[in-house]
Specification:
globular; alpha+beta; Pseudouridine synthase
């Protein structure tokens, strides 16, 4: 799965923001597959004919089966400042999800406690006070419904492991293709229909407001909801 110029959503001297495809990994892992960070690094090296190593700092990650906006830093200064923005939750992340079924409420805030099982790399809804449980919250809004599926806009209010996937499943509307969290069938391309649609923040160097949106994947469930 190659990286191309059309995958770039925004680029300046400090940052490069790209539309990650489902199936790509952001950073190297035990699979040994080529991570997106290395693809971007190679792209920058070739584009600007840079000798030696190229800096491409990983600011945040998306799960492998998830698509959408990912930001990388092109300088160490931009990386440390972007890390601070994410740490201080000074960024706004907006996701879109295609879910199975229709939620009971058109708009709602979901509130759960999650505990993570490291061995299974999976999070579970549990009771408050459970050892290791973390509070998590998100807001969702129904955008459209069609053919027994719904398109939701999701705003996570906390940053827990797999929280959108777990919370939407717990609400009776699992993300399409997410068999790990209760959907009945995997997608043919092994994706799940969760997309990091927008990332909004103040540019860490120029201080200009930045709002970057990733186009939706060309995939049958997403295509149901395209105009």
């Amino acid at each position: 799965m190659n990286f191309k110029e059309e995958d770039i959503l925004f680029e300046d001297n400090h940052l490069i923001m790209v539309n990650k495809k489902a199936g790509q990994i952001v950073q190297g892992d035990k699979t040994g597959d080529m991570p997106l960070s290395e693809m971007v690094k190679m792209f920058l090296k070739n584009k600007y004919a840079k000798p030696g190593n190229v800096f491409c700092g990983v600011v945040h990650r998306l799960d492998r089966p998830v698509s959408g906006v990912v930001v990388f830093a092109k300088t160490s200064k931009a990386l440390s400042r972007m890390n601070a923005l994410f740490r201080e939750r000074a960024t706004q992340k907006i996701y879109w999800a295609v879910v199975r079924g229709v939620p009971d409420l058109l708009e709602n805030e979901l509130h759960h406690y999650l505990v993570k099982n490291e061995r299974l790399n999976k999070s579970f809804v549990t009771h408050p006070g459970t050892k290791g449980a973390l509070e998590c919250r998100l807001r969702y809004k129904l955008l459209k419904s069609a053919n027994r599926y719904s398109l939701l806009e999701v705003l996570p209010l906390t940053g827990r492991h797999h929280q959108i996937r777990v919370q939407l499943a717990a609400n009776g509307t699992p993300i399409v293709g997410d068999v790990k969290y209760g959907d009945r069938r995997a997608n043919e391309d092994q994706s799940i229909c969760l997309h990091a649609r927008k990332l909004i923040f103040m540019h860490p160097v120029t201080k200009d407001p930045l709002e970057v949106e990733a186009p939706l994947p060309d995939q049958k469930y997403w295509n149901i909801f395209k105009e």
